[in-house]
Specification:
Blueprint: H1 3-6, E1 9-10, E2 15-19, E3 24-28, H2 30-36, E4 39-43, E5 51-52, E6 57-63, E7 67-71, E8 76-81, H3 84-87, H4 91-94, E9 103-107, H5 111-114, H6 119-125
Antiparallel strand pairs: 1-2, 2-3, 3-9, 4-6, 5-8, 6-7, 8-9
Length: about 130
């Protein structure tokens, strides 16, 4: 695994989290985007003072297969969204850990991020390929 992915934390609902100085960046894991198949649209929240709790819906990802919500991995507020996804939603598929990021949040407590799964824990939580 690349060093770039080693610093990620992950959720059971397939969001990844990367710490920045005082914020976190949230995106959809590679496994999550594969479940969706071709992403056709993304609904993003407005960056504002709305407070989110863990697992609150942040937005919606639409694909040729289905529509799913993506969730707040920790308590906090959204400070920035990836507006490039509005015109290019396929970035969630083609670059899920890079240009396909979804939102940037200011967590209430950065320590909550450390409580999320690391890559080994996340991969162990995924269904076996033959299931």
């Amino acid at each position: 695994m690349s060093d770039e992915l080693d610093d990620l934390k992950l959720t059971a609902t397939h969001e990844w989290v990367r710490k920045k100085a005082k914020t976190i960046v949230v995106g959809l894991t590679d496994f999550g985007q594969q479940l969706l198949s071709d992403v056709t649209g993304v609904e993003l929240p407005e960056p504002d003072d709305v407070h989110y709790n863990v697992r609150d819906e942040l937005g919606v990802i639409e694909s040729v297969r289905t529509t799913v919500d993506f969730h707040a991995p920790v308590r906090g507020t959204v400070v920035k969204v990836n507006s490039e996804l509005l015109a290019n939603p396929e970035l969630v598929n083609t670059d899920p850990f890079g240009k396909g990021w979804l939102v940037e949040m200011k967590p209430d407590d950065m320590a909550e991020v450390d409580e999320l799964m690391d890559f080994d824990e996340y991969e162990a939580s995924l269904p076996d390929e033959d299931e």
